[in-house]
Amino acid sequence: MRVVSGIQPTGNLHLGNYLGAIRNWVRMQDEITADGDDRAQLAGGGSAPKNQCLFFLADLHAISQPHVPAELHRGSLEMTAALVACGIDPMRSILFNQAQVPQHAELQWLLSGTARMGWLNRMTQWKDKAGKNREGQSVALFSYPVLQAADVLLYQATHVPVGEDQKQHLELARDIAQKFNNDFASEGAPVFTLPEPFIPPVAARIMSLRDGTAKMSKSDPSDLSRINLSDDPDTVMRKIKKAKTDPEPLPGELAGLADRPEALNLVTIYAAVADRSAEDVLGEFAGQGFGAFKPALGDLLVETLRPISRRFTELLEDRESLDAILATGAARARTLAGPTLDSVYRALGLVRA
Ligand code: ATP
Ligand code: MG
């Protein structure tokens, strides 16, 4: 099983990013590579492990829309630090950024000969993002799904985790692979593995601490609205203490929180962090007010986040380690990508001395 998954390299990471995205990767890594890691292969012996996770920063995708270069740069380093601090093991998984593996862009071009305009025109994400102004969009926004296809086909991924919004893009990757395999073959053999989708476990959706109807987000101007991965224990406690709530005690059942979005959010956070169901948490705290619940939630968050924020901050100040992590990951990714790209060139009849 070879799993490939990417994430946009954003900075200012918060609890929502951790519980909604990063933690899923860590769990995936821990489940999929439970039976061993790449250390033997890295040391020069042994063959490629049976189960592998490749996680990449989709920095090439980030330039498909207007962006601030300095923010992309900082965001990439922050995301790398956050992933490692949260538990992605750069020895066990292959962690890298697209920009250091030129084969992604290379394969995208080679697949552009196979992808059809009609297929891309039907992508709902393109339609949504372009809106009425198609003429004014970058070519990259249009061909984005071809780069996504290259991202997974390059490594002969067997499985790709996809949320509802990305299902169509994986279908497209399969269509491109299938057409390429039909039209061309490398020494009689099909070039690409058709990747299967798998739906990751539903991640928690975390809301703002100031407004239970708005998503916790890095773009909220109020820092009190979110818990940042870099917040120290005092800050975490203070933010939870100040979080908006209501004067009612907690109910025994989830239905009792239906029109209490702030209360529901704090219970959701507790449940997600403790890895328990919201019902279970309510079972424990039913009848208690926020005077009791908030300190318990604060303690739980501090305990969970302390090692993460410490490692995150350390890594952010250690540019050399971050560079080394990404360079090692990229070197391993390039090694895996090489043979695929060789057979693509060969299948297409391109001469390479
Ligand atoms: P922005 O406000 O700029 O959209 P953001 O805080 O929403 O930023 P993104 O960079 O858009 O963060 O998202 C990164 C990842 O984190 C995505 O996988 C997204 O689904 C997830 N994520 C973001 N916010 C939350 C949240 N509040 N709860 C759960 N998951 C979240
Ligand atoms: Mg967002």
Automatic annotation (TrEMBL):
Residues engaged in binding L-tryptophan: 151
Location(s), subcellular: Cytoplasm
SUPFAM superfamilies: Nucleotidylyl transferase (SSF52374)
Claim: Hydrolase is one of the keywords in the record: no
Annotated keywords: Aminoacyl-tRNA synthetase, ATP-binding, Cytoplasm, Ligase, Nucleotide-binding, Protein biosynthesis
Motif ('HIGH' region): 9-17
GO molecular function: tryptophan-tRNA ligase activity
Family: Belongs to the class-I aminoacyl-tRNA synthetase family.
Protein name: Tryptophan--tRNA ligase
Gene that encodes it: trpS
